[in-house]
Amino acid sequence: MIRLILVILAVALLLALSPMLIGEVGYVLISFNQTTIEGSIVAFCATILVIALGLYLTYKLIRYIWSMYSNTRHRFFARSEERKQAAIEQGVWSLINGDSEQLELALANNSVADNWQDVRYALLAKAALQHNDPSKAIGLLDQISPANQLKAAKLWLASGDCSTVAGELKVLAEAKKATALELKLYAEVLVQQQKWTALEQFMPRLLAKKALTQSQWTVLLTSYFMAQPQSQLTDKYQQLPKPVKAKAQNCYLAAMASAGCLNEIELSLIKMLKKPEQHAELAQILKVSAPGDALKLQASLQDTLKKDSDNQDLLLALACLANAHGEYDLAARVFDKALTRENSKAYFAQAQLSYSKSAQPQKALDLYS
Q1: What is the pLDDT of residues 9-59, one digit of tens each?
Q2: Is 44 exposed, middle or buried (0-12, 13-18, 19+ CB in 10 A)?
Q3: Which string of DSSP letters, residue by residue, matches 36-85?
Q4: Sign of dihedral through CA atoms 194, 196, 199, 201?
Q5: How many CB atoms lie within 10 A of CB 40?
Q6: How many angstroms separate the Cα of 28 from the Cα of each of 9, 39, 116?
Q7: Are 256 and 297 within 8 A, CB to CB?
Q8: Known Pfam families for this protein (predicted)?
Q9: 3-state secondary structure of 204
Q10: Per residue in 247-304, pLDDT tens?
Q11: Residues 30, 35, 38, CA angle at the centre, nearest 5°?
Q12: DSSP track, 100-135
């Protein structure tokens, strides 16, 4: 632009000086329709100069104003985007730190970028679940776009209403190339919907695909057996495929103990007693026992403890079994020896029962501290 103006000025200057160089004043005549403009070439050049300068200044002013507007607009939107990014980052960090209250403060009243909106709903739903508010969580999960609903499948399961994702998970789980995660999630759907027959048919595939860890199998099978009628527990266990039955044994025994059927599983428990590596599992089974009879098991436990009096797992097993037999004084004495800071929480209910029933309320109260 500046070069163009300089060229115009140079041409105008030449036009102005050329008549003077030849001794002529020089005139300019412009005629357009009925309009005529006449003047000296000097005046004409001066007019062009003024117009050019005015146009240049106008251009510079318009450009300056536009740059100010652009910068202001850019800064405004940049700050807005920064606030949105800060909100989602704060929400994620709050989730990492397990601070659901701060998570809600960060996201409830702040907007986020469109591509993070579904994540915002999912994070707020997780916070609502941590506050034991499933209805609020379901309302938030409903707002997640259909394309991302399956990504929040675990939250739907935790909310107690998995109907939104159950159909899609079933399709994915029945596909030949289903992933371990899809199989695991569908198994959880079957448990939540209490579709036990479908779960029985699905268990071999879970095992073949190695979709569950041992702890996940324990949770799954515990839910399965605890939901069965007491009269059908043994039949259900015997009907399981052999590979699944091996994983289900302890869960079955715990369900039988919880139903008070100790006499029916006593031989199996005595076999566990004879294997030192299963002593901890034996204690875990007896921990959930209801009142029942397993006198041979108790005698075997006491005989074994005479040879290994510091076996903590067997001491805990004996204390729980004594409770099941109504021998609360014996259970309390054993708990006095076996309870530690590490296991007191796991055996809190059994210890409290023995102390309260053996007229030792102070010890029962001490367990709360």
Answers
A1: 666 666 556 655 555 555 666 666 767 766 666 666 667 777 777 787 788
A2: buried
A3: EEEEEHHHHHHHHHHHHHHHHHHHHHHHHHHHHHHHHHHHHHHHHHHHHH
A4: negative
A5: 14
A6: 17, 5, 69
A7: no
A8: HemY_N
A9: helix
A10: 999 999 999 999 999 999 999 999 999 999 999 999 999 999 999 999 999 999 999 9
A11: 40
A12: HHHHHHHHTT----GGGHHHHHHHHHHHHHHTT-HH
Q: Assign domain 260-369 to its CATH architecture.
A: Alpha Horseshoe (1.25)
Residue among 218, 172, 229, 169 at smallest CA distance from 193: 169
Three-class HEC string of 182-193: HHHHHHHHHHHC
Domains of the chain, by residue range, sit at 1-83, 162-257, 260-369
pTM score, whole prediction: 0.70
Quick one: tokens of 197? 């027959």
Q: Who's near 220: CB < 8 A, 6+ residues apart?
A: 187, 188, 191, 199, 212
